[in-house]
Structures are given as structure tokens and as C-alpha cells.
Amino acid sequence: MIFYFTGTGNSLHAAKTIADAQKDKLLSIPEELDKEGNTFTYHFKNNELLGFVFPVYAWAPPKIVLDFISKMKITGGKPFVFALNTCGSEEGKTTQVLQDALEAIGFTLNSAFSVMMPSNYVVGSDVYPKDKVEMILNDADNKLEAFNKIIYKRQSDVFQLLPGRLPLLKTALINPLFNRFSLNTKHFYVTDACTKCMLCEKVCPVHTIKVIEKPVWDKICTQCLACINRCPVQAIQFGKGTVNRGRYAHPSL
Predict the structure, then answer these.
(1) Structural domains for the chain
(2) 69 Cβ contact partners less than 8 Å away, ≥ 6 residues apart
(3) Which end of the chain is less congested by CB atoms within 10 angstroms, N or C?
């Protein structure tokens, strides 16, 4: 059973690649959170896969992923627990934060992986050129193939991560500031290019967008930037910084 969260498809592609290779079930974390009356109870056999695949947000797991894990109740046998994060360049101490969340519900990671993928965070910087995107995606697919072999063999204590420089400082200092000040919608707006296709409303994992005369945002946000990057006419902006920048979504979408 593999749980995933994605904004613009990198983590979905990684999760689907693993699920297909392992012939395992793929579950969306936002969809699980949306289920009315969900007790978040999941049954496992011994050595059955329990996986978490998600992007790195400011050097830690997205808050929605940690909130979901805190609700989980695992019954049955002892699963093989793995995690895979997708990041623009480095994960900081993302895996350690996830490990702490799992330990709080009585589980520990057997193995974990980081894989670099093209960044979608156009709020901070422009997207990569097409040739660099293709190179990164090809390298990521090669790494996913290698990770799949490790997962299939249920190899424990394999931690192939991308911590980067000063990982503890970045995760401990910057991520709390990100969660406190960036998980809001006050800088989003839509231009006259909007065609009211409603795709932004459909892809928002927390249902904060409603298209009335045009898209409007409620207060809750994960900063996944699916609305910005997946708008087919680039009508959605975030402040002034995204106006002249490109957009990125995984080609599998």
C-alpha cells in the first residue's frame, strides 16, 4: 500500500512507477483525507509494503502528509516501511522529520530515498530549460528503477538521500517559518486570460479554489502550486514574481 501526495506530478509519477513495479495499491493522501467517516485504519500483513511518496517543501515533508500520518492506525502484521521524496536539489532533514512522525504512531522506516526532479516552485525561481528537464527526468527514472529493486528485496537500512548543505539548520529553522507564513492564499490572483476551465478547482488538493465568475481562493493552502503550474493559459499568478516565469508539470500529466 503506497500513499502519495503530489502537486504537479513528480511524486505521482514516482509513486506510480513503484506501485506498478511492486504490483501494489496506490492511494492519494488528499483523497483519503476527503473520505467521509474515514477512520484512517489500514490493515497489513507481515512484510507488506507501506510506502510514502511526496515532494519536499522547504526541506521537510508537506504538512498535509504529516497530518495524515498522525491520524493513521495500522493493524495486522509488521509492514516494510519505506519513503521516497522528490526534491528540486536537496531534502535537508526531510526523512528524519518523517521518521519522527512514524515513530509517534509506533513505526520506523526500513529504507528511504530522495530523487531529484525538476522544481515547480516558480514563486522562488524560474523553471529549468527543456533539455535540462529531460536530463533530470531521465536520471530520476534510472534511480527509480534502482530503488524498485531495493524495495522488491525488502532491503532494510538503505538510506539514499540528498541532505545538501546545513540540512539541520534549513529544516529546523526555515521549514517552521514556511509553514507559519507561506501556507496562505493572499498572493494568488487570476488575470483576464482565464477561460474558466475549472482545472484549478479540480486539482487543488485542499479544495480551497472555487470558480465562480473567476477562480477565488479560500484561506487554506499547501503551496503545492498545482493551480499555477497546471493552468493551461498561465492565468494564475502569485504576486509579481511568477508573471514572466515558465510553468512546470510532469509530462505524464
Answers:
(1) 2-178 (3.40.50.360), 188-238 (3.30.70.20)
(2) 52, 98, 101, 102, 104, 105
(3) C
